[in-house]
Structure formats: structure tokens, C-alpha cells
Write a sequence for this structure.
């Protein structure tokens, strides 16, 4: 059986301190994210705080569970992590926005319900930061 080619995603970031930080934030702002990532926001810039949320411990745990356990649904991920379904769903939506996770619609044959199966879209993530 042929091996699947490893998928590597790259994020290039340019930091700038030219903008005045919003209250309760300090330091640098991300000013450029190179495609394929698209930040869906009216402001193309977003703060380090928001980027840090993308790469948080909880999101890393979600990515690990999806890779290692191959869950059948978002509910399975939440159950595996011992977290609230809505919180996990929100985290997965963010990961999907950055094309790190894909949600595949499936029909559960036992219950007849539709569910979304999360699938990891990468094997490796490279983040480069330019100052």
C-alpha cells in the first residue's frame, strides 16, 4: 500500500509595532499572513494574543486527538478531552478557518443523524516570524 505524502503547512508572519495596541494588549501586531490562510475579519491585522489563541494548549490537544484517535465526530473529540461540546466546536471552527482541520459531513447509520467528522489537514506546521 503506497504511503500518503506528508502535508506541510507554512505560515509566514511579519510583526510590526507601528500600530497602537488595543487596551490590555501590548507589544507587536501581526501585519501579514501569507495564503492559504485568510483571516475573516474587517481588519486584516490581528494581535499576537489572537494568534496565541490559535496555537493554544487546548487547540494542540484537539489536533493530537484528531490525529491519534481518528474520532467519528466533534462530540467524540469533546468526550475524549473531557471538555464542553460547544467549546470544542468553537475551537475546531477556528482550526478549520486556518485550514488545519477539515470537517467531513457523514450520516450515522445507527441514529440517522448527520455529524461532522474532523480530519487533520496537515502532518507538520511551520511558523516563521519576521521582525
Amino acid at each position: 500500500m503506497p504511503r500518503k505524502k506528508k502535508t506541510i503547512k507554512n505560515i509566514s508572519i511579519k510583526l510590526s509595532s507601528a500600530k497602537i495596541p488595543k487596551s490590555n494588549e501590548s507589544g507587536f501586531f501581526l501585519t501579514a499572513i501569507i495564503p492559504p490562510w485568510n483571516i475573516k475579519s474587517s481588519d486584516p491585522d490581528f494581535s499576537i494574543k489572537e494568534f496565541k489563541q490559535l496555537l493554544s494548549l487546548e487547540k494542540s490537544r484537539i489536533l493530537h486527538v484528531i490525529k491519534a484517535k481518528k474520532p467519528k465526530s466533534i462530540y467524540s473529540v469533546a468526550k475524549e478531552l473531557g471538555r464542553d461540546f460547544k467549546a470544542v466546536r468553537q475551537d475546531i471552527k477556528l482550526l478549520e478557518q486556518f485550514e488545519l482541520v477539515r470537517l467531513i459531513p457523514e450520516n450515522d447509520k445507527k441514529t440517522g443523524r448527520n455529524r461532522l467528522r474532523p480530519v487533520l489537514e496537515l502532518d507538520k506546521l511551520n511558523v516563521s516570524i519576521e521582525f
